[in-house]
Amino acid sequence: xxxxxxxxxxxxxxxxxxxxxxxxxxxxxxxxxxxxxxxxxxxxxxxxxxxxxxxxxxxxxxxxxxxxxxxxxxxxxxxxxxxxxxxxxxxxxxxxxxxxxxxxxxxxxxxxxxxxxxxxxxxxxxxxxxxxxxxxxxxxxxxxxxxxxxxxxxxxxxxxxxxxxxxxxxxxxxxxxxxxxxxxxxxxxxxxxxxxxxxxxxxxxxxxxxxxxxxxxxxxxxxxxxxxxxxxxxxxxxxxxxxxxxxxxxxxxxxxxxxxxxxxxxxxxxxxxxxxxxxxxxxxxxxxxxxxxxxxxxxxxxxxxxxxxxxxxxxxxxxxxxxxxxxxxxxxxxxxxxxxxxxxxxxxxxxxxxxxxxxxxxxxxxxxxxxxxxxxxxxxxxxxxxxxxxxxxxxxxxxxxxxxxxxxxxxxxxxxxxxxxxxxxxxxxxxxxxxxxxxxxxx
Amino acid sequence: xxxxxxxxxxxxxxxxxxxxxxxxxxxxxxxxxxxxxxxxxxxxxxxxxxxxxxxxxxxxxxxxxxxxxxxxxxxxxxxxxxxxxxxxxxxxxxxxxxxxxxxxxxxxxxxxxxxxxxxxxxxxxxxxxxxxxxxxxxxxxxxxxxxxxxxxxxxxxxxxxxxxxxxxxxxxxxxxxxxxxxxxxxxxxxxxxxxxxxxxxxxxxxxxxxxxxxxxxxxxxxxxxxxxxxxxxxxxxxxxxxxxxxxxxxxxxxxxxxxxxxxxxxxxxxxxxxxxxxxxxxxxxxxxxxxxxxxxxxxxxxxxxxxxxxxxxxxxxxxxxxxxxxxxxxxxxxxxxxxxxxxxxxxxxxxxxxxxxxxxxxxxxxxxxxxxxxxxxxxxxxxxxxxxxxxxxxxxxxxxxxxxxxxxxxxxxxxxxxxxxxxxxxxxxxxxxxxxxxxxxxx
Lengths: 443, 443
Hints:
2 copies of one chain form a homodimer.
Chain A: E1 10-14, H1 18-28, E2 33-38, E3 42-44, H2 49-53, E4 63-65, H3 66-69, E5 76-80, E6 83-87, E7 92-95, E8 98-101, E9 104-107, E10 111-113, H4 119-124, H5 131-148, H6 154-160, E11 162-166, H7 170-185, H8 187-190, E12 200-204, H9 216-228, E13 232-234, E14 239-242, E15 246-249, E16 254-256, E17 259-262, E18 266-268, H10 276-279, E19 286-287, E20 300-302, E21 307-308, H11 322-342, E22 356-361, E23 364-368, E24 373-375, H12 377-390, H13 394-410, H14 422-432
Parallel strand pairs in A: 1-2, 1-9, 2-5, 9-20, 11-12, 11-17, 12-13, 19-21
Antiparallel strand pairs in A: 3-4, 6-7, 7-8, 10-18, 14-15, 15-16, 22-23, 23-24
Helix pairs in contact in A: 1-11, 5-6
EC number (chains A, B): 1.6.5.9
Transmembrane segments (chains A, B): 377-394
Enzyme class (chains A, B): oxidoreductase
């Protein structure tokens, strides 16, 4: 990997998400060598990916070059790499660009979509965890409407204009709201020769409430908002299959649709080579102690989505959200500095829950703070302010803010561009892979 | 195609570039049915593509949805389609989404890269005529530097950091200037562990001046600017081959490079089915008369890059630039309206040359106007103002302006993101195509 051996201890961080970046910033100014590996050369602000999918924001405004975040630190190294396996006995990781020795290893690999073993759904549904995936969804939504114009079959038209979102967490709810606003504000103007009133937005949820994990007040209000926008909410319904045309559920309910968006769950993106038997919980996360140390290892840590730290308050681990990753990244940074440089003992991590929020549409958001809960226009402004605040990069903030102001005033979303057609890409890859859908990687 | 038959005459326009859009705007408010076909669902502002390739602008800010440009006209139809052939005897075009009858057909298909028959260069070089192509180049430039970090071979490092641009028209010159600014301002910060001083930017030109077609004053000044920025200019040199590693020329000069950017020429993007024998000139454009009517046809017109209208002032046709396309689009619009609605005779087209300009870098541009020629900072401001003015969409203008101000103040270009790695895509396509490089279409 061409990284010089120095007298400083080497900390290798895998993953440049919220946790990895927060940790790297803490460590890079210290007397240690920090190596960050990621398979992208940019940090992705995942909470706004759904706005990329729905044409409200350009992808480049929610991504930020990792090299730039850390360019002022001379002991910091970034490498664009896919990690293949960890050899803990040799303190070495193996990657597609060669091996690397470490003194301390931090797994900040985040999470990936959890299909709960359903290969058919995995092969046919859309997901939204990375920028290319969000762009694929944007292309597909637009390609669907272009195709709907061309067919005389009402059934096919309906399938192309029917969107089924599985999972009513923040991602599912926010996406449903955005699609409903597109249906209302943009489709009638863009497709006057298509009866876009027949477009349907469905959100399917296995439990009996949406935004599970938020207050019942927030959940109820979000449901009202979605209904106002014309979204169909199906609770207590579990999607069981999707062959690319028909969605089946555990009830009598079926959907004919060309687009299933799977936002029903995530799982830890674990790394091979770390003994899974003892330390991986049901959500596929590495079990860590209070100092984020992976159980059974002395020099390997895990933070954020891929870490499962249990406590009385969080018997199944912390929620898999950005705030936990950021706080664990900062905390582990302090612990490592104290431990490595001053040989001080580590302090246990405690999560400070600053609240949760979700937005459904213009002037429609729900906010749960530890002391206050509120909904509506003020909540919507708070949501926007918080997201702008956490977005990395001044230019990104200005561009996102400009888009939001424009979209708000004009009821518009101008980034509705099919830059790389999704159907064509998928067809080419399927040909190439000789119809082995489980291996598809669209990046 | 599901386009209703009405009592209005139907004008079909192929291509949503500068000419097609200008024409459609003129016609759509009249008593005629206007159908615009394009293979993208957006209009591309091509003059700024080089800033996308070099991370200065996000692609979405120079693209604009065609449906949105014309959404207020009830007789306007857009279809996302690839035109396959024209059957002039039947007044019908055939496309990948079915056939369509026309009363009048306007070819506004623009131009594509001209490799002058060199298949090897076509298979191995990068081009920059569409948004996906510009993004591929952006990815490749960044992938090169990431790869250069990993190798111990000085030769390979040099090849990865060596950029050869063929053609010193505005595109080549502007790209060379932008790469030189990246070398100076960004590489040392992003790649401190790489000796980026060794990066080379070469521009190769077969003639004895750069910016051919502009004044000798502008050409000389642009050359000075490029030299100030450290660009190597090779005049009177013709590139003869490139196998992916070695660029050969008609002189002793060779380059070892991983990146050849071909900006040496364009040719008309003609449409099959229109008899080529009589009406295609050496630059592959349809010969048209003073009213933009294609020679030998009564109801088929051509405008912009694909049209060749000769006159005393322009014995080989007009320059293939946006201004000609816009003026011909507007003019043909007026002619068609007069002719179809009032049966008035058409007026001949005359090109009003408003001038030419090119920018090399910050505060460095050259402007030739009919009466004044100037260079430097003021020219640079004029260049920016004119480009903002012609960019379609208020939001796009604000976002582009924001980026320019930011880039100017910070000496930065933040969109240096590898969203879709180019090398991986190319490898996959080559596998799929079983090494038939001439068929590669990366979109």
